[in-house]
Amino acid sequence: MVRLELPLRLGPHSTKCFRPNIRPKSIISQRTASSQAAIAESSEDVDPSSSFTTDLPPDDIVRTFNPAERSRTRKVQLPASRYRFRPPKYYRGPLHPYQPPPPSDPSSRLFIPGPFTLPRLQQTYTSTLRPDLLTLSYLHLPPGYRPPPRAPRLRIWDDSSPYHKNRPARPPRGADVLRLLKKPATFRNVPAVERITVHTMVKRAVDDSAHLHVAGMIVQAITNVRVRTHKHKKTLQQFGTRAGRYVSVTADLRGEDMYHFLGKVVDVVLPRIKDYQGVKGSSGDSSGNISFGFDKEVVGSFPEIEVNYDS
């Protein structure tokens, strides 16, 4: 009972004793020039002298001042600055306080200077082909244009039968795969070559892997890109393949290597093919991809391979 009645008895007395004082107190934040001068005169840490009042060095000292020559003739070189930024050797995660600079920064360990010049094919595309492709594929849409509503790409069931319930939508007519959606052509998405994939399969590599090594070195020589190997997943007796055996190599080209390889194919290899009719238009998938192949005799027309035949 004492613990319960004690707060009730001390309640009114505690409110009288601990009543807060809410009277406003004036805050003095005004400074005057006289007070600042008095503080400056009374402070011993303030240096009254100024660099504007000091005398200039003599002219002979100014003429003979050469810090580069002085550091060159110094017998003992000074240590490197401890405050100079050095990128970390290893990446320690995005949450580490010491982050490396981006590869585009010259102080980064991954910085690669250049490109100083563009491949000739890339310059031709930028100056000639790009404006022509934009002119041929451009479709002007005025501001406020609203495209007309389109039917769903997948056909739905008409529910004329009870078996239509909970069934997935039907594929389009004439094909089992939907085509890619085409964005309207603007100056931001002009058609361009983004990647070239060089792939070859060697059937003899099932019995002897030396044939695959030769094919990998040839592809790497003509593309200047490190190749990747692939192996069979299943064993097929009719094709003579065995699971787990490496039989093909692939090289993916982007950027400068891609333009150099495409330039060699267009300027050197294709003109040497006798009675060449060009690449068939039906070889692509109508979505920006096109594929064609070369025989082993045509591969010998590449300069990197031809030089070995001549020797």
Give a quick summary of the entry.
With 311 residues, this protein is mostly helical. The chain is built from 9 helices and 3 strands.
Structure commentary:
With 311 residues, the protein is mainly α. The chain is built from 9 helices and 3 strands. The protein has helices spanning 2-17, 33-42, 59-64, 67-72, 120-137, 210-223, 255-269, 296-299, 303-310; strands at 196-201, 228-231, 246-253. It has a 3-stranded antiparallel sheet. The chain is extended and about 100 Å long. It starts with a helix and ends with a helix.
Give the SSE map.
Elements: H1 2-17, H2 33-42, H3 59-64, H4 67-72, H5 120-137, E1 196-201, H6 210-223, E2 228-231, E3 246-253, H7 255-269, H8 296-299, H9 303-310
Antiparallel strand pairs: 1-3, 2-3
- The SSE string, one letter per element, is HHHHHEHEEHHH
General shape:
extended
- Low-pLDDT stretches are 1-29
- Tell me the number of strands: 3
Structural class: mainly alpha
Radius of gyration: 39 Å
Instruction: Measure the end-to-end span.
Output: 112 Å
- Whole-number mean pLDDT: 80
Helix content: 25-40%
Number of helices: 9
Tell me the fraction of residues in β-strands, as a range: 5-15%
- Strand order within the widest sheet? 1-3-2
Largest sheet geometry: 3 strands, antiparallel
Could you list some keywords that capture this structure?
single chain, 311 residues, mainly alpha
